[in-house]
Design goal:
The complex is a heterodimer of chains A (112) and B (112).
Chain A (H helix, E strand, L loop, with lengths): L4 E3 L2 E5 L4 E6 L7 E6 L6 E6 L5 E4 L2 E5 L5 E6 L8 E8 L7 E3 L3 E6 L1
Parallel strand pairs in A: 2-11
Antiparallel strand pairs in A: 1-3, 3-8, 4-5, 4-9, 6-7, 7-8, 9-10, 9-11
Chain B lengths: L3 E4 L2 E4 L5 E7 L5 E7 L5 E9 L2 E4 L6 E3 L9 E3 L8 E8 L7 E2 L3 E5 L1
Parallel strand pairs in B: 2-11
Antiparallel strand pairs in B: 1-3, 3-8, 4-5, 4-9, 5-6, 7-8, 9-10, 9-11
Classes of the chains: A mainly beta (112), B mainly beta (112).
């Protein structure tokens, strides 16, 4: 089945530093979604990427989908303490619509 | 406000007992899902349902059961056959296709 590897598992940064998490697949993806889960909370949808080479921005967050549609990244510029949480990528397995496979997530800690 | 309501938020049970987690949505979504989350791991799919009176096993269905008698409700029963039931359980729904998942706030089950 469709799987993705997400790295790193943990990232600790000083406030103001940048942060990047990566998702990699061995097969071509139809699309990829990104979610954020605050400590003690539930995952919240951030964005979906569909097109090869797509780049989308949400304020300090930049999402990229690779040209081969096998990898994706989430980059946060100048992190803030409000960015703390776990970021997950999720991919559509394709066998049944709506069945997402989640990466293990990257847990981001931001030191003030 | 539309959303997904999970109850209870916290639940304790003794070994050998079955427990049912409630999930109700008023988003008029067709598809509903149950995920399990363990520390340091991504979300793993337990069961999903795309229409009323139909549901499919996910990756870790053993020891769990579900029903979908109404569009808005998708309860999950954790049976005594589940060997390691202590976890955070998340219910989600989606309008259809490969759209974004909307999550409830989760139910944290602890087996004593």
């Amino acid at each position: 089945g469709q799987q993705v590897m997400q790295i790193p598992q943990y990232q600790h940064v000083q406030e103001g530093e940048d942060f990047t998490t990566y998702c990699n697949s061995s097969t071509t993806l139809s699309n990829i979604q990104w979610y954020k889960q605050r400590p003690g909370g539930h995952p919240v949808f951030l964005i979906q990427l569909v097109k090869s080479g797509e780049v989308k921005k949400q304020k300090r967050l930049t999402f990229q989908f690779g040209e081969a549609k096998k990898n994706s990244s989430l980059h946060i510029t100048a992190t803030q303490t409000t960015d703390v949480g776990t970021y997950f990528c999720a991919v559509d397995r394709g066998s049944t619509l709506g069945r997402l496979y989640f990466g293990r997530g990257t847990q981001l800690t931001v030191w003030p | 406000d539309g959303g997904i309501t999970q109850s209870p938020k916290y639940l304790f049970r003794k070994e050998g007992q079955n427990v049912t987690l409630s999930c109700e949505q008023n988003l008029n979504h067709d598809a509903m899902y149950w995920y399990r989350q363990d520390p340091g791991q991504g979300l793993r799919l337990i069961y999903y349902s795309q229409i009323v009176n139909d549901f499919q096993k996910g990756d870790i269905a053993e020891g769990y059961s579900v029903s979908r008698e109404k569009k808005e409700s998708f309860p999950l029963t954790v049976t005594s056959a589940q060997k390691n039931p202590t976890a955070f359980y998340l219910c989600a729904s989606t309008l259809g296709g490969a759209g974004e998942l909307f999550f409830g706030e989760g139910s944290r089950l602890t087996v004593l």
